[in-house]
Amino acid sequence: MKIIVTSIFVQDQDKALEFYSDKLGFVKKQDVPMGKYRWITLVSPEAHDGTELLLEPNEHPAAQEYQKKIFADGIPATMFGVADIHEEYKRLLENGVKFTMEPTKMGEVTIAVFDDTCGNLIQIAQQ
Description:
By secondary structure, the chain is of the alpha/beta class. The protein contains three helices and eight strands, in the order βαβββαβαβββ. A hairpin with a 2-residue loop joins strand 2 and strand 3 (37-43).
């Protein structure tokens, strides 16, 4: 068994697609109309056949409450791995990404956290 799709709740699919592709550099893999919303997935440019990130509408009240509460508590919704966190931090800053935590060493891992502008905090990590 393997993970093929993971999702993240977003307030606006179009805004999220723009942020995750233009600012972060993910590549759109699927964009399928599904009634009021779309099935939009992105993949890493280094792994076109890798795990897909689904931009899941937060339409359900429970999803909205969950998203608001973890954001307010400073809890990242997900984590992305990077090879060089300082280079990635610099690249993302240059792309206008707003960080809530600069690269910080935590034991064997260095992490940083940014706001995805769609209701989530996202953590990047270098192991």
